[in-house]
Amino acid sequence: MAINQNHPFEELDGRRCAVAxxxxxxxRVEFLKYILEGNGYTVMVxxxxxxxxxxxxxxxxxxESAAEPPPPPTTFTVGVTDVTFNMVNAIFGRLLRSPEGxxxxxxxxxxxxxxxxxxxxxxxxxxx
Length: 128
What we know:
Strand order of the largest sheet: 1-2-4-3
């Protein structure tokens, strides 16, 4: 259980881990592993539990039942074995570096930018 929602941690594959992100797709997992392992963290990735099934509404008399909804995409939980890791503190505290040596910005972490532009403060960042 986390101290608060900003510092989540849980047991992943039998090891206590600070959660970096939950419910991420495989492409995002590779990006996060690349950044976090490049900064010296040991990364743990486990499949996320499936979402709770919501029962479909029952069709009215004379109507055919709707088709089954497609299965949800496979998602993962990404964590690091350093339980003191906090994603928000690491980004805004300028503790993470990209492989090119630039400070990881929030826009780069969220993959809104291909290159981390640490010259522009986050409060002046304009989404394109």
